[in-house]
Amino acid sequence: MSTHKYIIRSAGIISIATLCSRLLGFLRDIVIARLFGVYLYAQAFVVAFKIPNLLRDLVGEGAANAAFVPVFSEYDVRASREEFWKLANVVLNLMLVLLSLITIAGILLAPLLVRLIAPGFIAEPEKLSAAIHLTRIIFPYILLVSLAAYAVGILNTLKHFSVPAFAPCFLNISVILCALFFGENVTGLATGVLIGGALQLAVQIPVLYKKGFRVRGFLKDFRHPGAALIGRLMLPRLFSTSIYQLNNFVDSIFGSLGFIVGEGGVAVLYFAYRLIQFPLGIFGNALSQAILPAFSTQALEETKDNLKRTLSFGLRATFFVLLPASAGFMVLAKPIISGLFGGGRFDAYSAEVTARVLFFYSIGLTAYGANKIMQSCFFALKDTLTPAKVSALALCISAALDAVLMFPLKISGLALATATSSSIAALVLFGILRKKIGGLQTKPIYSSFIRILIASVCMGGVCFYIKDIEFFVARNAFFRLLNLLIVILAGGVSYLIFCFIFRLSEIHELSRKLKDRFLSSP
Questions:
Q1: Lowest CB count within 10 Å: 106, 179, 275, 510, which one?
Q2: In terms of Cα–Cα distance, which of 331, 328, 323 is closest to 283?
């Protein structure tokens, strides 16, 4: 099987699993929105969940993507299976100690952490108290989900994607069930997070065992050359986990300043960002996760020709999916927000403000996905320092723009700052990566980007023209969603048509593969 076919198949598995998780996540967010709106308890939960979630990405999933897979891939290719599992046990011991210390510190320092991430809460004692209480309940989630991410890293190295990809579904199921059981008692959301984190880890343990993992030297053996290399790769990764996540963290600090950006800022950012995560998670994250093992293997080759081809393929595939998604979000922001979250305590104000934030976040959607692909390439080359420097630059730009744009644009200014800084970071990463791998055929990439952009703009025009048509009388939420679905489907069909009109190589290649697949079927 060719590298590109393997990547497509692996990304397809991850995408299907991610789609299930995102749909469940939407259901979870709808439940939260209708129970709590964008007001006090919704904001407290968002802040409480954000702190361990950020640390999870830094220590857990970030390490798995940036350090685990390249190092484990090298040991899988060049070392014995016994040595591979010895390294896995040493890393497990180190993670257990590190994560336990972080968890205990987080519980003890919850009052300080909440004040740092949401300084605007200090002026509202009830909101501050609720956020601290929820943070203490949720914080052990970092231990559970980081161990789950450790399992993901090992299984992905061994080319097993399905179970790790479906594991996050259990988090959303757990939160939904707990939210429905506890009702307007926000503690139920925190309880659901903990149970979901435990389930994410539990479902992967049988697969690890089947692959050959056995616990050896539990909390005794802490030394291994591979573990030291992972540590060296991981340190700069602490500063470059992902540009959009770090910028989102900065946004939360400014978003808590309700007297400047308006009521509900933190929750508004959360709901809009969750929608951005839908295409990014289903495709962008899936592709970057599937492409990393290929990058890691190709980086070991003397020439980098295969690496360059895979990078070009990854970027063009990202453009093909995320550019039209960005255009669709910008045009349909208001009907999407109202159709999904409208009702209960999620009132007209909540819908209007969240739609504006979604519009500005969407500007940077393609950059978010491209950053992930290019960072995966850097990580495969065992260079985590360069992405760290670029992330630091992006953070500085984002923070400066936040401070300026939040006055004229309110909460929307924070989303625009994130999109702008991420786009700048993508251009910087691309320029550095071209030099690092000794050149890259940029003409196909530029041509693909321009053609896809034009097709996406044309698709956006179609959506704009038909978005107010009532195909069915909108008597209730179901018919509003049905009308929205028709517009989205029409937009998708028009996009494919415009891709043929503008002679996109990607759509012709996809069409040829589908034709070959069906014609070759019995």
A1: 510
A2: 323
